[in-house]
Write a structure and sequence with these properties.
The chain is α+β, with helices and mostly antiparallel strands. About 25% of the residues lie in helices and about 35% in strands. A 4-stranded antiparallel beta sheet has the order 1-28-27-26. It has a 4-stranded antiparallel beta sheet with strand order 2-3-4-5, with no helix packed on it. The protein has a 4-stranded antiparallel beta sheet with strand order 6-7-8-9, with no helix packed on it. The longest helix is centred in the last third of the chain and has 39 residues, at about 430-470. The two termini are about 50 Å apart. Pfam families: UTP15_C, WD40. One of its GO terms (biological process) is positive regulation of transcription by RNA polymerase I. InterPro entries: U3_snoRNA-assocProt_15_C, WD40/YVTN_repeat-like_dom_sf, WD40_PAC1, WD40_repeat_CS, WD40_repeat_dom_sf, WD40_rpt.
């Protein structure tokens, strides 16, 4: 009934609140590039500036996905273009093992022949004076930006190094991950041996340094490691159906976002590592980035699409202050059934709508009253205490004629069960008309069950035919 609001059974869980938060994001812009969008990253200070690598191009675009600067003179595919923390420099790796240092306005500043094979990942250290590079030649190296010289080399990995992640709090620490199934924590002051080694048990595509924690993505799982506890596994998340490719944080590190080859972006509440929301993409997702303040996030896809989502702020409508309600206040335009319900006269409310439905034109009103009685848990009392015996026949006829309508089936089955309970408990001999209606109801229900069985058989046969045709 319109005058009675359904009470909320339980408060919303935290994951539901987080999901509603991410539901506010809507697709804003899409840009198509040549080659896979293997990396996207927002400017550390400007929330509208996005950096990405596609094929042999590094591009900077504005909020409308229009390019403001494009670096296209590379003779090789480039990967993992990353901003320095002050936004004044960019670094990226190349397919032929070259490490590039770029200025956002003036172009390429330095090109270093750094590795023998492709550099899949690179990044600036906390002090902004050095660059860490990881390569398919199984090595990790640290480079001095000013001189272009290699400062240190780490050779502990036995397969391709796919990702490196510098610490955001200490310029001497970083982590690396490899196809040799390991994640290693390094101290630049001791390059001969790693500080910790963690076994992911599958080739690792991406690693992220998160203060005292480390996150690795590979196989079909994302694992969270506690570095202070000696590399102990804290949590394993297996919500991706295919290989996860990238892990990023929101700007305040309240949420963790992961992308995967299963064409999904998954979002986790970082406080508890709980899955909270997901977005679908049109192609396998390779990378994701969140802008400062979480206003936007962008995802790079395997087919060259870069899609940006923007948060839509909900504007609260101005409302006039509510006046105090007097004790003798009465709602206007209430129906007679509403008045009976307001005074807890449940049987009278049910009798009224049944009499009003004699022509079969007020079915929704009867259903509404029945649902309200079920919600109040007074349906049994309302039917058992009715004054007119003939009204039971009206109720049975209503159930018989409408139980086959799908949207009415659930409440009417409960009504039928209550009527049967009442008739079984009474010591009086039921009236012949009531017995006849109950038998008709039994036959109608049996017919519906047989029809459902036939539909299920037909559906199974159609699925077999369709599977054979597709094969």
């Amino acid at each position: 009934m319109s005058s009675f609001k359904t009470a909320e059974l339980c408060p919303k869980q935290k994951t539901e609140i987080v999901s509603e938060y991410w539901d506010n994001y809507r697709q804003l812009n899409v840009r198509k590039e040549t080659g896979a969008a293997n990396w996207v990253e927002y400017h550390p200070e400007q929330e509208d500036v996005l950096l990405f690598t596609c094929g042999s191009r590094v591009s900077i675009v504005d909020s409308n996905m229009e390019p403001t600067k494009t670096f296209s003179r590379f003779k090789e595919d480039v990967y993992s273009a990353r901003w320095r923390s002050d936004g004044s420099l960019i670094t990226c790796g190349g397919q032929q093992g070259k490490l590039h240092v770029l200025h956002p306005q003036h172009g390429e500043l330095r090109r270093i022949k750094a590795h023998k094979q492709a550099i899949r990942s690179c990044g600036f250290t906390k002090d902004n004076h050095r660059i860490i590079s990881g390569s398919d030649d199984n090595e990790v190296k640290i480079w001095d930006i000013a001189t272009g010289e290699c400062v240190q080399t780490f050779r502990s990995h036995s397969d391709h190094v796919r990702s490196v992640s510098p610490s955001s709090t200490n310029s001497q620490h970083f982590v690396s991950s490899s196809y040799d199934h390991t994640i290693k924590l390094w101290d630049c002051r001791h390059p001969d041996t790693e500080v910790l080694t963690m076994q992911h048990n599958t080739p690792v595509e991406c690693v992220l340094f998160a203060n005292e924690l480390c996150i690795s993505a590979g196989g079909n799982s994302v694992k969270i490691w506690d570095l202070l506890a000696g590399g102990r596994l804290l949590k394993e998340l297996r919500d991706h159906h295919k290989t996860p490719t990238c892990v990023k944080f929101s700007s305040g590190r309240s949420y963790m976002l992961t992308t995967g080859l299963d064409k999904r972006i998954l979002i986790y509440d970082w406080n508890g590592f709980e899955y909270a929301h997901s977005f679908k993409t049109s192609a396998p997702a390779l990378s994701v980035a969140v802008s400062k303040g979480d206003k936007r996030f962008s995802v790079g896809l395997e087919d060259g699409l870069i899609t940006t989502f923007e948060k839509k702020e909900k504007l609260e409508k101005w409302r006039e202050p509510k006046e105090e309600i007097e004790e003798d206040w009465k709602p206007k335009n209430m129906s007679k059934a509403d008045k009976h319900l307001r005074h807890f006269e449940h049987s009278k409310a049910l009798d009224f709508v049944l009499k009003k439905n004699q022509g079969g034109m007020k079915v929704d009103q009867v259903i509404s009253v029945l649902q309200e009685l079920i919600r109040r848990d007074v349906l049994h009392a309302a039917i058992a205490s009715r004054s007119e015996k003939s009204s039971l026949e009206h109720l049975l006829k209503f159930v018989l004629y409408n139980i086959g309508v799908q949207r009415y089936t659930a409440p009417l089955i409960e009504v039928a069960n209550v009527i049967l309970d009442i008739e079984l408990q009474t010591e009086e001999v039921p009236q012949p008309e009531v017995v006849d209606l109950l038998n008709r109801l039994r036959r109608a229900v049996k017919s519906e069950i047989e029809m459902c069985d036939k539909i299920a058989q037909m559906r199974g046969a159609l699925e077999i035919i369709m599977n054979c045709n597709s094969a």
